[in-house]
Amino acid sequence: MSDQVEYYNHFGELYKTAILTCPEPEFWTTDYQEKGRIYMEMRERVSRQAALVEKFFSTEFPVLDVGCGFGRQAMLLAKKGFSVVGADSSKIFIEIATELFEERQLPGKFLNDDLEDVSPNQFRQLILFDVLEHIKVSSRRRFLTKMHSLSFSGAVLIVSIPHLKKRVTSWVNNKLRKKITQNFSYFFTREEHPYPIPTAQDMRALLKGLFTILIFEETPATDYYVLRKL
Question: How far apart are CA 99 and CA 91, in angstroms?
Fold first, then answer.
């Protein structure tokens, strides 16, 4: 799923103990102890993601969490009564998520693969939180087509991506600098966001014929899409 597996495996190894010992791992960040800026932004984003899930999903059906990372959103949803199936290409993140859920006896299953072993037409509820921006531009349509194949007709998919600020420097960085960094593996292992963030226009093109947009919400830090499978 992610073209930055090496980056996230290294990140997971570096912070594994901190995540596992955190009293609220669903809100863990590198500045968690200080309750700094990253923590405050993460807490707001994850809480908003969970609120959208509670509004549009039912605990009657499992949730497929694609690009689940170390189980941040999965844990929050499990605590709210949802059964979660998480998938991520980072082996270390899957190990952390599995350990977190086992320690807390939460309902969840985690897969370290690219969804090739997941049966088609299986899920009514799917989430793709903070993932699409980590996938090569040329692979995004194929990735969403795979998610389309995993879901029932009429299934709901909730997506969140970073909000691309309207100032000139943000657009230059996204359109020009990342046009370069997306093509070199050097940046994949050193930067969290080497690929361009999809714009609203990009999203409409990516989703065409696969999902219809039910709701779009824009915030200063994150954009949210609630989608229905066509």
Answer: 12
**The amino acid at 37:** R
User: How many other C-beta atoms are found inside a 10 Å radius of the C-beta of residue 28?
Assistant: 20
Residue type, 43: R
> Count of H helices and E strands in the chain?
9, 7
Distance in angstroms (rounded) separating the CA atoms of residues 143 and 121: 15
Which domain CATH number covers 102? 3.40.50.150
**H or E element: which one contains 117?**
none
- Number of domains present in the structure of the chain: 1
Per-residue model confidence as pLDDT tens digits over 16-25: 999 999 999 9
DSSP state of 228: E
54-58, 115-119, 213-217 — which is least confidently predicted?
A: 115-119
Structure token pair of residue 28: 């863990």
Residue 63: both structure tokens together: 């949730």
pTM: 0.88
Identify the DSSP state of 196: P
DSSP 174: I
- Its domain, for residue 67, covers 5-229
Helix 200-207 with 140-150: angle, nearest 10 deg: 50
Strand order in the sheet with 151-162: 108-111, 84-87, 63-66, 123-129, 151-162, 222-229, 211-218
Task: Identify the helix (H) or strand (E) that includes residue 127.
Answer: strand 123-129
pLDDT, one tens digit per residue, over 46-90 is 999 999 999 999 999 999 999 999 999 999 999 999 999 999 999
Q: Phi and psi of 130, rounded to 5°? A: 60, 45
